[in-house]
Amino acid sequence: KPEMENVARASFKGSSYCMNIKEGAGFETRDGVHVDRGHEAEIPGSKGTANFVMKWKESKRDMSISLTEVKGLCRDITENDNEKWVPVAVFECRGCEPTGYQPEGEWLVESTGGTKYEDVDLSDEWMDYCEKLGE
Questions:
Q1: What 8-state DSSP symbol labels residue 43?
Q2: Three-state SS across 62-110?
Q3: Are 133 and 113 in contact (CB under 8 A)?
Q4: Most buried residue, 30, 31, 97, 99, by CB count within 10 Å?
Q5: Computed from CA positions of residues 42, 48, 52, 56, in that sequence, does the dihedral angle turn out positive or negative?
Q6: Cβ(15)–Cβ(36) under 8 Å?
Q7: DSSP assignment, residue 134?
Q8: What pLDDT is stored for residue 3 in this prediction?
Q9: Is the pTM of this model over 0.85?
C-alpha cells in the first residue's frame, strides 16, 4: 500500500516485475522472481509461451507466469490511493500463487507540485525535495 504524501501520480515504466511465489499444490516457495514483459519462454508440454517458466525442485511440477493486459483494470497510482491497494499489473499464474511483490524497477513519480522524478526505485522507502512545493 503506497504512502502518497505530496505525490500526485506514480507510474510503472519498467518491463520486469519482482515477486515472491508459492507452489500452487505444495509448500515450496521462491523469492525474487522477475517476470519480464519482454521475455517469452515455451511452456513445457504446451504450444503456449509465458513470461516466466520454471520447474519446482521438489515436486518436479512445471509452473508459469504471464503478464496479461486487462483493459480498464490496471492503472497508475494517484494521490487518492494513499494506503490503498492498486492494480498495477495482472498476472496469469499456473502452478503457483503470488505471495509478495517488490516494487523495484523504473517508476515515474510526479509530485503534487508538478515536479517529475524519473527512474525512481521504490524497492526501499523513497522521498525527495520538491522545489515547487518547498517540501
A1: P
A2: EEEEEEECCCCCCCCEEHHHCCCCCCCCEEEEECEEEEEEECCCCEEEE
A3: yes
A4: 30
A5: negative
A6: yes
A7: T
A8: 79
A9: no
